[in-house]
Specification:
Chain lengths: 133, 284
């Protein structure tokens, strides 16, 4: 059996792929942060300037739906990258490239769950209060 | 709240008892993910969500419009200027250092401040609300039980901040209405020679430059309105009780009792001081 001869570019490929998924784990929290900023900023300005809060509310609730959709999409991608259904690996104990790849998917998946919870919590006042009281 | 605390206490202590007495020693590591995910993620999310929904449900209560009565309170250093605006009133009924509210009705408390930020707080009736110079804030309170509650300035506002308190008296609505009617009246005539002499002392010592007693020449606006000071429960904005003894102590030692207060301590002859206290105590 031929010995596996390392390709010169193999490491670089692996690294650039991990770099991409390293970015990807920030997408969930990033959407959450943008949604948070939009909600607090728009409501504060609308209430201070006496703008139509009902309109702003609808706009932001639509934004919440879009944000949740985006986080869901990121989370789904991350879940597939984690590949837990096939491997059943929750721990990523070995330090191989594949483990790192799965680990980053796992982390991104958990982060997108907490981001979704964050978006829901920030949206609740829009649903339950819905005014400038 | 108490029930939640009891459950939490039982859980924490129960877990401790289980770990130390029932099953001491190391646990199987297979439990770890369940404990972490169940106790560290799912349980807090459920509890926090429930608390958030409940909290948001009651968040706007203190901003709900009132049933008619508006009380305007201005924070001063270190006392409370109080105006009652019953529904349809065109001019306020002036009072100070005590808030009276009818039970079973929601009253709007409109707040502002003279020079520095204060905070209006009657812990038994509701949350705090800051009072800003040049800005109006509002908190509406719906007291249910008749009684006297302590109010306190909750934002550091200078040397005597801790002595800036007041009584909040919740009354039956009928009793409140007749009290408010009486509060709108001018001061009663002094009863007895001592009180009559006391009024003379009050006017000749210049008390009226800062204090108003409606129906007399005293129209000062610097300090609290004293028209019905004798009917209040406390003296010096919650500093002392409203008794003859405390009145004489306050007038002769105001600066010691309330550091940096504007009112100077008066060095009066004992009989004049006593007369003055009798006059003020009689202003029911």
């Amino acid at each position: 059996m031929a010995e596996h001869r390392p390709d010169r570019n193999e490491d670089r490929h692996e690294f650039s792929e991990e770099q991409a998924s390293l970015f990807r784990i920030t997408f969930g929290p990033l959407i959450w942060a943008l949604h948070f900023l939009a909600c607090y900023g728009l409501v504060a300005v609308a209430c201070a300037k006496g703008a139509d809060i009902a309109m702003v509310r609808i706009l932001l609730l639509l934004g919440s739906v879009v944000a949740l959709g985006g986080i869901g999409w990121v989370g789904y991608g991350a879940f597939r990258q984690w590949n837990v259904v096939e491997t059943g690996d929750f721990v990523h104990r070995r330090g191989h490239a594949e483990d790192r790849h799965h680990f980053l998917g796992h982390a991104a998946f958990l982060l997108s769950i907490i981001s979704a919870i964050g978006v829901i919590f920030v949206s609740l006042p829009l649903v339950m209060i819905g005014g400038c009281q | 709240m108490l029930a939640g605390a009891v459950v939490l206490w039982l859980f924490v202590n129960g877990a401790f008892y289980f770990m130390s007495r029932i099953r001491p020693g190391r646990f199987d590591q297979t439990y770890a993910p369940h404990i972490l995910i169940g106790g560290g993620i799912i349980l807090p999310v459920v509890i926090l969500s429930a608390l958030l929904v409940w909290g948001l449900g009651i968040l706007t209560d203190p901003r709900r419009p009132g049933d008619g009565l508006v009380v305007r309170v201005t924070g001063e250093q270190w006392w409370w200027r109080v105006e009652y605006w019953p529904e349809g009133a065109t001019e306020p009924i002036i009072s100070a250092n005590e808030i009276r509210l009818p039970a079973g009705q929601r009253a709007e408390i409109h707040l502002t401040s003279d020079k520095v930020i204060h905070s209006f707080w009657i812990p038994a009736l509701g949350g705090k609300m800051d009072m800003f110079p040049g800005r109006d804030t509002m908190i509406s309170l719906a007291p249910e039980k008749v009684g006297t509650y302590r109010g306190q300035c909750a934002e550091f506002c200078g040397a005597s901040h801790a002595w800036m308190a007041f009584s909040a008296v919740v009354m039956e609505p009928e009793a409140f209405d007749s009290w408010l009617e009486a509060e709108a009246e001018d001061a009663v005539e002094p009863a007895g020679d001592a009180a009559l002499r006391g009024r003379q002392v009050f006017l000749s010592e210049g008390c009226g430059a800062c204090h108003a007693v409606r129906g007399t020449e005293a129209v000062g606006q610097v300090g609290p309105d004293l028209t019905h000071v004798g009917s209040r429960q406390t003296l010096g904005a919650g500093r002392m009780a409203l008794t003859l003894e405390d009145l004489t102590t306050w007038i002769s030692h105001s600066e010691a009792l309330k550091p940096e207060v504007k009112m100077p301590a008066y060095d009066l002859a004992p009989d004049r001081l006593d007369d003055l206290a009798r006059y003020l105590e009689g202003l029911k």
